[in-house]
């Protein structure tokens, strides 16, 4: 069962029952209605569930060839799924004439698949030789709107980023692990030794490399050459692709922190010419997808608690480098599920739908 047909194109959401899928359904109810049929698809475990979409009850379909019946040219299928699922099913969708919008890592490095953040390079959606459009990971999506606006004015020359990533980036399992660990730790009498947290949590680290409660974990992804993680290298590669700066020097350190929702990052950006911090703030204030919150004297700066549940990337602590007139330092917080994934996917899908309006 799908939402009633209107004159718009059909939208199918694969992974509709996951953490990001739940946010995407909220977003669909809050944005302009450009869609006809809305079809919800998930694994066979979730088939038959009823979910609300725009005040309509929709039955979740099991992921199969039949789930895509009736889809064709002008229709859009969002993949909010692991990379292996997207890699298997996106070509099936494209063969039927629909456009696949994928938020996994399956196609982000494919030169025939545009990697898109609509606020920065939305025009790239129209050039899709494989019929697929990819979105970046939630860290890149969170910082790139601010970075892209500054790059357009000053020309980015070098980038260094440290991330503070929320547990929900690991899906429902990540959030559940953090909550479980916090409950265990709250029931103990911890001393001053960090080892106490490890003893309290034991082997229950869930999807993280170490206990996350009352801790920070400087690791995300798999080990790559020279000690870099796959996630750090991915942020580097995606930033280069979106900004079309193939040789941009980028250094990234990814850190997991005990926050449920909301990624944050410190950014040091060096540009081709001198940067005026006051003018940079004006640029950020006008940048689409960005909210500037920058009055430290009044205690006003971004935090993940502020960003959670909101659409924009919150930017603050904007300041000139102490030792380089061409460098700028700033801080970003954004809802990793909403801004980082679901909203980006919805915006891309709307751009595609606009082509057929």
Automatic annotation (TrEMBL):
The cross-references to InterPro entries, in alphabetical order and at most eight, read: NAD(P)-bd_dom_sf (IPR036291), Semialdehyde_DH_NAD-bd (IPR000534), Semialdhyde_DH_dimer_dom (IPR012280)
Sorted alphabetically, the Gene Ontology BP terms of this entry are: amino acid biosynthetic process
Superkingdom to which the source organism belongs? Bacteria
Record SUPFAM superfamilies: Glyceraldehyde-3-phosphate dehydrogenase-like, C-terminal domain, NAD(P)-binding Rossmann-fold domains
The GO molecular function terms of this record are:
NAD binding; oxidoreductase activity, acting on the aldehyde or oxo group of donors, NAD or NADP as acceptor; protein dimerization activity
Q: Which Gene3D superfamilies match?
A: Dihydrodipicolinate Reductase, domain 2, NAD(P)-binding Rossmann-like Domain
Q: Domain named Semialdehyde dehydrogenase NAD-binding: which ranges? A: 10-128
- Residues the record marks as active site: 138, 263
NCBIfam families annotated for this entry?
PRK14874.1 (NF011456)
Give the family, as the similarity comment puts it.
Belongs to the aspartate-semialdehyde dehydrogenase family.
Official protein name in the record: Aspartate-semialdehyde dehydrogenase
Gene giving rise to this polypeptide: asd_1
């Amino acid at each position: 069962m799908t939402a009633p047909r209107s004159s718009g194109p059909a939208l199918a959401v694969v992974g509709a029952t996951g953490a990001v899928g739940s946010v995407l359904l909220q977003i669909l109810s809050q944005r302009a209605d450009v869609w006809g049929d809305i079809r919800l698809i998930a694994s066979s475990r979730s088939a038959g569930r009823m979910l609300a979409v725009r005040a309509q009850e929709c039955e979740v379909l099991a992921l199969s060839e039949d789930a895509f019946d009736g889809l064709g040219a002008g229709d859009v299928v969002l993949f909010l799924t692991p990379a292996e699922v997207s890699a298997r099913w996106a070509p099936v969708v494209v063969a039927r004439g629909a456009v696949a919008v994928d938020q996994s890592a399956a196609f982000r490095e494919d030169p025939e698949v545009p990697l898109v953040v609509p606020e920065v390079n939305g025009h790239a959606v129209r050039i899709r030789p494989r019929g697929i459009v990819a979105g970046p990971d939630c860290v890149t999506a969170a910082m790139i709107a601010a970075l892209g606006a500054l790059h357009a004015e000053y020309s980015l020359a070098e980038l260094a980023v440290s991330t503070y990533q929320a547990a929900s980036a690991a899906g429902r399992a990540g959030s559940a692990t953090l909550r479980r660990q916090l409950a265990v730790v709250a029931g103990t009498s911890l001393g001053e030794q960090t080892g106490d947290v490890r003893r309290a949590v034991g082997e229950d680290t869930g999807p993280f490399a170490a206990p996350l409660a009352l801790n920070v974990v400087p690791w995300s992804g798999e080990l790559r050459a020279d000690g870099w993680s796959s996630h750090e290298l991915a942020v580097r590669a995606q930033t280069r692709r979106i900004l079309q700066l193939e040789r941009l020097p980028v250094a990234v350190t990814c850190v997991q922190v005990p926050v449920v929702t909301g990624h944050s990052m410190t950014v040091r950006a060096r540009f081709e010419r001198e940067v005026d911090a006051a003018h940079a703030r004006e640029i950020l204030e006008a940048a689409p997808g960005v909210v500037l919150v920058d009055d430290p004297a009044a205690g006003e700066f971004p935090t993940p608690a502020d960003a959670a549940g909101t659409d924009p990337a919150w930017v603050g602590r904007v300041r000139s480098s102490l030792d380089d007139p061409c460098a700028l330092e700033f801080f970003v917080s954004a809802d990793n599920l909403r801004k980082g994934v679901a909203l980006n996917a919805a915006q891309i899908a709307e751009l595609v739908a606009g082509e057929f309006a």
